Amino acid sequence: MGRLDGKVAVVTGGASGIGAGIVDRFVEEGAVVVVADLQDAAGEAVADRHGDAVRFIHTDVTVEADLATAVDLAVSSFGRLDVMVNNAGVIGAVGPIADTSEAAFDATIGVLLKGVFLGTKHAARVMVPQGSGAIVSTASTAALMGGLGPHLYTAAKHAVVGLTKSVANELGPHGIRVNAVAPGSTLTPMVTTLRSDEPVEEAVVADYLASSSLLGIAGMPVDMANGVLYLASDEARYVTGHCLVIDGGQTASGSEKHQFHQDDH
Description:
- Helix content is 45%, strand content 14%.
- α1 packs across α8, α3 packs parallel to α4 and α4 packs parallel to α5.
- The N and C termini lie far apart (48 Å).
- A seven-stranded parallel sheet has the order 3-2-1-4-5-6-7, with helices on both faces.
- The protein has two domains: 203 residues, Rossmann fold (3-Layer(aba) Sandwich), CATH 3.40.50.720; 33 residues, no CATH class.
- The protein is of the alpha/beta class and 265 residues long.
- The radius of gyration is 17 Å and the shape is globular.
């Protein structure tokens, strides 16, 4: 038996990177999944790879109607919603605080915080009446320390952890668990394109991530997906309001700043 047999999930940002890794692991463990993402071609490719187990829907997580529709698709296609994964993310605004525009602030917070809020809201809309469910949001080690991400990314990820803890208090009595994961530096397209002035080869980034890890290995999407899988599964039935750090010891050492820092831009 799979760890998610019979479960229905929505994964935002599920077309690539950590999100695609989550979709793959969920399907491997018996779930059916709605992938909600802006990347149409990549999203359709993930759905095609998994056949009837995955549906794709074009979704802008900053638009409430889009997220409501993604949740409704899960219910209409599969009958219920057991797991909501708020994973969609961007690096967002970079550079000195004095040079950051209001528009850049709104766009960054829109994806990284508003998107989590809206996903959680519409998951709760379905999960409260059914009396069960698990919500997992992707935070970051930048939610725990300064200097590991740009200013607004760091602020938004701190807020994701705060929102997780707050909503866990409300939804726990309804049988709904609300948790987050804090990935460390992970080999994803978003990380490999952090430099805007020159291309960064994936192998170079992988070598750097491995050398900066206490374990000597690079974090991969599947490593983060395994953490999300645990929190989504019944194995975590006594876990709520928690942020699971998956970072190869990055925050334990507290000494490593990501080489693709905002000052590089």
